[in-house]
Amino acid sequence: MRVNKIFAVLFLALSVLNAEEKLKAPDFTLNTIDGKQVVLSKLRGKVVIIDFWATTCSPCRQEIPGFVSLKKKYKGNIEIIGISLDRKSEQVVDFCTKYKVNYPVGMASREILEEYGSISKIQYIPTTFIVDRDGYIYDVIIGYRAEAELEKIVRSLISNEKS
């Protein structure tokens, strides 16, 4: 019985330590398909959704209208950054025009893939990183996530964190 209590206390202590360990989102500069640049560190104070996706990925295509909607609804409080894994930017430009993507989209660079791949292997897409207002990774989502679920996370981060 005493051994169980010791393990319970150790487990609790480790859980608290792990909960306090936050990983800073690696900074990057992304050249967007419309000729601009997005610098992640300049977005501090906003919740940032970084979405690794491709035009040929069905779950990615399902998720993007939800991102467009969230950007409209929370435009002053969030930023969404689409990082395409497509080989040709022309198909990304056509896709973003067709689906009226209202947030910055750029092509993945080797550096960005290495930095974010070291946190969570980007083997499946979509892979989405949620970054809190202070620049720390709050969550990594692999696969499709419904807009309502993403909105709960965004609302929570907007309302529970300092500006």
Description:
The chain has 5 helices and 7 strands. The strands form 2 sheets. Strands 5-4-3-6-7 form a 5-stranded mixed β-sheet. Strands 1-2 form a two-stranded antiparallel ribbon. The protein is globular and about 40 Å long. It has a single domain (22-160), classed as Glutaredoxin. It starts with a helix and ends with a helix. The protein is an alpha/beta fold and 163 residues long.
Helix content range of the residues, please? 40-55%
Q: Order of strands side by side in the largest beta sheet?
A: 5-4-3-6-7
Largest sheet: 5 strands, mixed
Strand content: 15-25%
The structural class is alpha/beta
At the first level of CATH, the class is Alpha Beta
From the spread of the alpha carbons, the general shape counts as globular
The secondary-structure element order is: HEEEHEHEHEEH
Mean pLDDT: 87
In CATH terms, what is the architecture? 3-Layer(aba) Sandwich
CATH topology: Glutaredoxin
Overall tally of domains = 1
Number of helices: 5
Radius of gyration over alpha carbons?
Answer: 18 Å
**CATH-assigned homologous superfamily:** Glutaredoxin
- Low-pLDDT segments: 2-19
Number of strands: 7
Q: What distinguishing features does this structure have?
A:
Glutaredoxin, globular, 5-stranded mixed beta sheet, disordered N terminus, 163 residues, 41% helix, alpha/beta, two-stranded antiparallel sheet
